[in-house]
Amino acid sequence: MGKRKKQAKVLRIFRRVHRTTGALLFIFFFFVSVSGLILGWKKNSNGYILPKTQKGTTADLKKWLPVDSLHTIACTTLRNEVSPELSLEIDRIDMRKEKGSVKFVFVDSFYEVQLDGTTGDVLSIGQRRSDFLENIHDGSIIDDFLGTNGYVKLVYSSIMGSSLLMFTVTGFWLWYGPKRMRKASKSKPTV
User: Fold this and answer.
1) Would you call 115 helix, strand, or coil by DSSP?
2) Would you say 107 and 91 are in contact if contact means Cβ atoms under 8 Å apart?
3) Membrane-spanning residues where (predicted)?
4) Does residue 29 share a domain with residue 59?
C-alpha cells in the first residue's frame, strides 16, 4: 500500500471516530459548553448567577464574632427570610477576610447568607445559581440524583475530558492531513 493510500486510510478512520463520537456525545457536549459559557459570566451577571461578595466592617479577625455565633445568625436568617422548610445543612463556609464578610452556603437550593464578620449583620441573601450550573458542567447533578458518591462524576469527567482530547487530535489531523497530502502530491516529480 502506497504512502498516500495509508494517509487516506488514516484520515477516513479519524473522520469516522470524530463523527461517531460527536454524534454519541452531542447532548453532553451541548450541556458542558452552554454551562461553561454561562459560568464564564458568573461574576459579571450583576448578582444573578453568583451573588456579589459584600463588604463588611473590618478585615481584623480579632474583632470578628465567633464562627458558631455567625452560623446561628445565618441559619436563623435562612429560616426566617427564605423558608422554614429549607435544610440548614451547610455546604461550605467562605470567609472573606479582606472583605470583612463571611458566606454560609447551604446545600438546599444553593442559598447563601452573607454576614458582616464583626457585627453579624446580614449583608445579603441570595441563590447561587452558579453552583447548580457547576453541577451540570461536571456531571455532579447525575451523581447526586443517582446517589453514587462521586463515581458517576468521575466516569463522566473522564469520558468528557478524553473525548475533548480526542476531538482535538482528530480535528487537527482532519485539518492538517489533507494539506499534507496535497503538499506531498505537488512535490512528486512528474514522469
Assistant:
1) strand
2) yes
3) 21-41, 154-176
4) no
Q: In what order do the strands lie in the sheet with 90-96?
A: 90-96, 101-106, 111-116, 122-127
Question: What length does the chain have?
Answer: 191
- Rounded-to-integer distance, Cα 168 and Cα 18, Å: 9
83: closest CA among 60, 61, 111, 119? 111
Here the cell at position 112 is 447563601
Domain that holds residue 116: 51-127
Task: Identify the CA nearest to 55 among candidates 103, 123, 119.
Answer: 123
- The predicted structure's pLDDT at residue 167: 86
Three-state secondary-structure class, residue 189: coil
Please, are residues 114 and 123 in contact by the beta-carbon 8 Å criterion?
yes
Q: What is the pLDDT of residue 175?
A: 83
pLDDT under 50: residue ranges of the chain:
none
CB 145 within 8 A of CB 3: no
Buried b (16+ CB within 10 A) or exposed e, 120-143: bebbeebbbbbbbbbbbbbbbbeb
Which residues are within 8 A (CB) of 28 and not within 5 positions of it... i.e. 6 or more apart? 156, 159, 160
Question: CA-based diameter of the chain, in Å?
Answer: 90
DSSP state, residue 87: -
Counting runs of H as helices and runs of E as strands, what totals does the chain give? 5, 4
